[in-house]
Design a protein that fits this description.
single chain; five-stranded mixed sheet; flat; 14 helices
Length: 294
Amino acid sequence: MPSLEDLLVRSIPELRKMFVEARRAVPKGLLEALECDPRHGAQQLAKRLRDRYRSNRSEGQRLHTLLRFELELWDQGYSFIAGVDEAGMAPLAGPVVAGAVILPKNYKLRGLNDSKKILDETKREELATQIKQDAVCWSVGMADVGEIDRLNIYHAGLLAMQRAFQNLTCRPDFVLVDARKIPNCSSPQRGIIHGDALSATIAAASLIAKTTRDSHMLELDQIYSGYGFASHKGYPTPEHCRALKSLGALPIHRRSFTRVREALGLDPIQAELFDTSELSSETGSEPLHTVAIA
C-alpha cells in the first residue's frame, strides 16, 4: 500500500478507483485529509468512504449480535456448535430439506442472514458456497413426498432435520435449532423461535437448506415441464395453482395438501400438527385446535 503522502498527490479518480471500486482498505489519515480538501470531488469521495465505514461498522455490529447464542455457548466451554434449519414446509411439491452446519468460532460473513430475508437467488448461492467452504462441516437431510404424506409435513420436517444432524461428519457439542427440537438427537440442543434470524449458525443452515432445495427443484423442472418449478420452486403461487388445476397432480405433488387434493377431487385432510399448548405459550397466539395440511 502506498504511503499517505503518495496517495495525497494522486488524482481523485485514481483514489476513487482504489478505495470505492476496488474497496481497498482505507489507510489512516486519508479520510480526514479528503474531508479537509475543498475540492468537490474530494468531498464526494470522502462522503462515500465515510458512508462505507458506517455501513461496515453497522454490519459488524449486526454480525456480532447474530452470534449472541453461540458466544454464550462458547463461554460455557462448548466448541462445536451446530445449527439446523429446514426449507420447503409450505410448497405443494417436492421434498422438505434441512441443512446442518458447524461454523468456525467467531465466524462472521458479510451478508449472512435468514435465507428468507435474502431475496436475490445469486446472493443466496454465493453465501451458501462460502459457508460450505469455511465450515468445520456441513450436511443436508431430506424427507421425500411419500414421507410428507405419510407422516404429515410437520413430522417430515423433523425427520429431515434429524437426517441432516446425523449426516454431520463432526459430532456437535451443542445444537441450535430453528423453533423446534430434533427427535433422537444425541447432543444437547435448544430450539429458538425465529432462530434463523437470531443465530448465525441457524441462518447458515437455512441458506444451505434453501439453496439445496432450490437446486433440486430446478432439476425437477427439467423432468416435469409446464409447471414452472424453476420459478416458484413448488410454492403455491397463482402460476403453480393454475398449472396444477389444468395439468393435474404429479408424483412429486404432496397429496396430503389441500390444494393438491382439490385438484385430485379429494376432500381436505384435517390433522393435529402441533402441540397446541406449547405453540400458544411460545407465540402468544390463541391455540390452534386443528389445521388443514396446506
